[in-house]
Fold this sequence. Notes:
A: alpha+beta; seven-stranded antiparallel beta sheet; three-stranded antiparallel beta sheet; 13 helices; B: alpha/beta; Rossmann fold; 2 domains; 12 strands
Amino acid sequence: MTIQFNDETFHDDYTFRNSEWAIRRFPFPFHEDSYMYSVNLEPHLSLRPGSVYEKTFDVDEHYVSEMRDRARVLAEDPLRCQSLPHMTLAGWDLLELIMESKAREYPDLFELRRDGDHWHWINKPLELEQKFTFLDETTLPCGPMEYITRQAQGDFALLDHRDENLWMDAGMVTTQADWSLDFDIGMNFYEWHAPVPLAHELGVFQRALKFLLNLQQGAPVRRLNWTMTVNPLLDTSPENYHKWGVQKTELTPENVGSKQHLRVELQTLFRLPRSNALAFPIRCYLIRLEDLVTVPKWGRRLHRVLRDLPEELATYKGFIRNRPMIVDYLSKFDDGAETSPGIWPD
Amino acid sequence: MSRFQFPKSIHSRPVYGTLAARPGKAHLMVADAEGAEALLDLAGSAPGLMAKAHVIYIPGDAGERYIPRLGAHSPTQLYIGPSYSAAVPRLRKTLADAHMGLQIYLAGTEGLMGQAMLEATSAGYPASAIQTEHRGSTARRVQCVHCKGTTENVTTTPFICAHCGLNLFVRDHYSRRLAAFQGVCVDAEDPGDVPESEGLYQ
């Protein structure tokens, strides 16, 4: 196999680590030295071999451990995976999209053999093999969305398209930046974004919705979103906030570099062929600050972005209490030099 | 008067209007407590409307105050229920038996309207056939995002979850599917440091 999969945890002892390879390909989200909400959608085209933008669904060294973490979270709280009754077809669409993409783009890891509706799926990293009949739920161990998203990194939402709006009517959500699928399922685009500050007033959601309602098959789009997370905790859910919230108080000037992580979401959107729903994968990447600053441009830029971020955003993103410590740490890596445009390392 | 002007809020929070008579052969009115005032105003503005209506009324703290006046409008059916949950089987049967074109009027507390709205939309009625008018208490139904238990009649924030005992901050984020606002642990980052409880909208 081409990827060496890590054996690591995203909770309790937090043995998660990024290799040098993973650090260099981290999806740094800031193309300039400041940040404000924007729609920032671009075609999800293959870009830069080796980058997280190369494949339809990026698979990296964390794959096996992330899937183990998902199974753990689901065992504790099955409500993290829900699908309203009319969304099963969209689940099949998603299963097809993921299986076909992975088998095509990672032939050494995944195989899909199709004989009419009789499909044979082989997932080598997870040592899974399944023969099933496409569109026949009784031939899978669980629903199609759950089946395939237990084998794909990142969260997934399925958005129904009706009444000139998008409705979050199904999802697999275990690596979320503090939002609840169980609470938000069934909401439309404006409702589930309701708690986001400032962006409504900027017209961001009106423009994004208009764009997404016109999304065409075969023309997926992507954007990045970000927040800050203490410890490499994938499951920063509201459900468990009363357990993990206290970790924010454990930062010290000595450990901020290793405990504080930049959390980046690679969000992609696909129009699905049978259901006309949208698939909305939200893939989470974590990087500790001391690894991030090994790319000098990123260290300088993150310092400036966080230092100058409007207070509402730092509050909403949940790191207002630790901002001074984080900015102080990052300031040591900002010599004031100019940074080049764009997200890539120099 | 029992009207309350809700402050401007976020997109997921419901907004309520003023009930207005709509043409139709069949009408269903569901109200609790001071919600009866909205039904009486509606009946006053549209003589004969209530004579075509099935009224489901849960008086709660309002006691007998509005019942004689509701009865004076001679609804086709007038049900006085001891609690919302006691009225649910009847509400479901009514929604299942009714024909297309039923006009639905909900009035009273947010909890009553939200839950009855959920029943009506689950039964297949379009939002355009349902009107709402808030009257009376501004108490909310709040779901604890941690234990998933719903606490009724929440009037302060933070409050103690009736199920798991956590101190919950009441958000304006609202789920129609749950007919509830969201409650989130207020002292997760500083255990035991609970801000003093204050009334909602204070």
